[in-house]
Design goal:
The protein is α+β, with helices and mostly antiparallel strands. The protein has 2 domains: about 80 residues, no CATH class; about 60 residues. It has a 7-stranded antiparallel beta sheet with strand order 2-6-7-1-5-4-3. A hairpin with a 5-residue loop joins strand 4 and strand 5. The longest helix is centred in the N-terminal third of the chain and has 24 residues. The chain is globular and about 50 Å long. The chain starts with 7 loop residues before the first strand and ends with a strand.
Length: about 170
């Protein structure tokens, strides 16, 4: 709810191909998955409710030391906390991550719908430029979105970006 109004989250999914090598992107996605798993394992073993401040105190320095950007670290421990909470509420078994997926904060990417390019800021000051593959008319209806969160995943030999915006629908 935002100002008493329900928030509907809209999503635009697109395939994307890197301009150049996949190496840094795959390295980042593997690092992201492995670090989220590490944080999940640690939160699971603590067996207590943790505030964002406590999560920050526990994980920020270690994650930045691995070369992750500040916003990546926040996304990682908040995502790990939600995974643990969900697992405890549903199955009771500790989550085991397998997919190569990362949530990217709006400060860690540049999206240009005119040129259909996405530049991701990765770990250790690496960047990757992706060419987005989607029909122009499909993209046009999303042009007015405010930047929010991006999810990148790698599956079947290609990457896919998922651009999400919290918008009020009337």
């Amino acid at each position: 709810m935002r100002d008493g109004e329900p928030v509907v989250v809209k999503t635009l999914k697109m395939r994307a191909l890197p301009e150049g090598s996949y190496d840094h992107l795959l390295e980042f996605l593997r690092l992201y998955r492995d670090v989220v798993q590490l944080v999940v394992n640690r939160i699971w073993s603590l067996n207590e409710k943790l505030s964002k401040k406590k999560l920050h105190e526990l994980f920020y320095r270690d994650l930045v030391a691995l070369g992750l950007r500040a916003h990546h670290t926040k996304e990682i421990y908040v995502y790990a906390k939600s995974l643990v909470k969900s697992a405890r509420n549903n199955s009771g078994e500790k989550p085991v991550l397998k997919r190569l997926t990362a949530r990217i904060d709006r400060y860690d990417y540049r999206l240009d719908l005119d040129t259909m390019t996405l530049i991701l800021k990765l770990h250790s000051n690496h960047e990757v430029k992706l060419k987005l593959l989607a029909p122009g008319e499909r993209v046009e209806k999303y042009r007015s979105w405010s930047n929010y969160e991006l999810a990148i995943k790698y599956e079947n030999g290609s990457s896919m970006s998922q651009y999400t915006s919290g918008e009020l629908l009337n």
